[in-house]
Amino acid sequence: MQQPPPYVPAGGAPPPAAMVTKVELSVSCEGLRDADVFSKSDPICVLFSLDGNRKHEIGRTERIDDTLNPKFQKQIVIDYHFEEVQKLEFAVFDIDENTNNINQGDFLGKMECTLGQIVSASNFKKPLDYNGKAYGTISVQCQEQGGLQKSVNMTLRGVKLDKKDWFDKLIRSKWLGLQILASLVVSATLACYPSASYYVLPLYIALLLLHLTKLGKSDPFLEFHRQLIDGSYALAHRTEFIKNTLNPSWKPMDINTRRLCDNNPDTTVKVECFDWNSNGTHDLIGEFYTSLAELETSHAGKTWSLVHPKKKGKRGYKHSGEIVMERVEVKRKYSFLEYIQGGCELNFVVGIDFTGSNGDPRESSSLHYLGGNAPNQYTQAITAVGNVVQDYDSDQLYPAFGFGARLPPSWQVSHQFSLNGDPNNPDCHGIAGILAAYHQCIHSVQLYGPTNASPIVGSVAAMAREAFHQQQAKQYFVLLLITDGILTDMDQTIHMIIEASELPMSIIIIGVGDADFSDMERLDSDDKLLSLGPRVAKRDIVQFVPFREFKNAGADRLAASVLKEVPGQVCEFFCDMHRVPPLYDYRYQPPEMQ
């Protein structure tokens, strides 16, 4: 039946609805320029959006050691707008292990294109431009986000994998030079002291044999690749490598089925087993092919034979080892919006630095000065983040604390006090209520010190711990800490953050003023999990940014930067804890809703 035309109000047709879709970009390169002298380059790819002469970083991949043909596992997420020409630049750099600053690395090449070109191609491939010359190629695959998501959680082990050629590994070993030097030293020693041969030579031979024995074993790891429409493959997951074994047991892995097979159970998945080498030239042990449909119906003990393509068909060759399924579970994976729409609320909590280093609030130079034409940085930060988070909290009541001030009437230093003056109820109504309490508090306390944040982190962790005892994904806490300097109780705060990493909680830290915040970067553990002694955080829950980086960019950019990781942290926590959104949990619904 033909539908009637839509109603058009007076004054003309309504504007067309904008099409906005989030897409994930997977990047790989081949034949990169070698910028290192004694080893291969350590490449990283950075994606920029181009707006005239201005560039803005959208995201970057991980850095991979010693390779000229990287297959980056970390994908870059970008909004795709059908109605816009989105000009992009992919730039590849060789950077050192101890820095994330691309300006300190070597430029390897760049490629410019539009996002429309990428999404319209199955596998977009183009030469890299290095100072006007083509040097290597870059490939970009695009995958749309959204839709029903599942994850494959499985544990695999290898059995009797092929040994790799020990002589070949010896030649490529980074210890070859030391072995030659040791041989020269032993020879010189025996020439000068022949009697030493009774104990020097046997010891040297024993050590050499021990090293050769280790070289005779593999350092295996697995790579999972999904097949694209054009028949090529894109990397979906890579395991860790395990040293010196032919019978490895890899850590449990959790792979999103959208990345593994684009949610198509019949898509071919190629699994490759490699022998890891420190110089980046990994050796293929063998491969096998499977699918999500096969994995879903697999059981413990399911076995796949690894076959090397170059050995296949040769007389007497069977396989190069076997991969055995220890455990497999395919489970539903909920998105951030499904958690929010399913009844989960974000509880916003604020902590404000009232230490003396902020300056006298009566002086215009103070970070807490309220008499200027523009709001101070504390006010701007609270407003920017709060205006976003407030939409996800139904009661609009936000606990707000201060730390580092002397309080009347005793004028004792407090490392945690309610901004509204009520020690029994720190809740403020709405963002306006937080700002009103903050402005009132400035005039009633004495700024002092030190800068101790651990008490507030501990208090919010206690709230999150109480919510954790619920069996549903009902509450998640977002703590906004605003400070003008380095924390005095850094170790205690790290200890609290590590404990909080096991709870439904994220921490946003905004540094105001012009202090050196380099030590605060330690808390924002993007590259490795935060640790203190033997204790390691379960996940990364901290996002730190200096306010000064957004002075000219506007409050919207500040909020977007500090909140960008929260949705992923929410999903990661509840998924790991097997908590589902309340409206999806049939155990807690009345019979008429089931």
How would you describe the overall organization of this protein?
- It is built from 13 helices and 28 strands.
- It is of the alpha+beta class and 594 residues long.
- The strands form 7 sheets. Strands 17, 18, 21, 22, 24, 25 and 28 form a 7-stranded mixed beta sheet that branches.
- The chain is globular.
Topology readout:
Blueprint: E1 20-30, E2 43-51, E3 54-60, E4 76-81, E5 87-94, E6 106-114, H1 115-119, E7 124-130, E8 133-144, E9 149-159, H2 166-172, H3 176-192, H4 200-215, E10 220-227, E11 233-238, E12 253-256, H5 257-261, E13 269-275, E14 283-290, H6 292-296, E15 303-305, E16 322-333, H7 336-341, E17 345-353, H8 377-389, E18 397-403, E19 405-407, E20 412-414, E21 417-418, E22 427-429, H9 430-442, E23 446-447, H10 454-468, E24 475-483, H11 490-500, E25 505-511, E26 531-532, E27 535-536, E28 542-546, H12 555-563, H13 566-576
Helix pairs in contact: 3-4, 8-9, 8-12, 10-11
| Structural class category | alpha+beta
User: Could you describe the largest sheet, including whether it forms a barrel?
Assistant: 7 strands, mixed
* β-strand amount: 25-35%
Q: How many beta strands in the DSSP annotation? A: 28
Described by its quaternary structure, the protein is: single chain
Radius of gyration: 29 Å
Residue stretches low in confidence (pLDDT < 50, at least 5 long) are: 1-19, 587-594
Helix content: 10-25%
Total helical elements? 13
Estimate the global geometry from the Cα principal axes.
globular
Q: Kindly report how far apart the N and C termini lie.
A: 34 Å
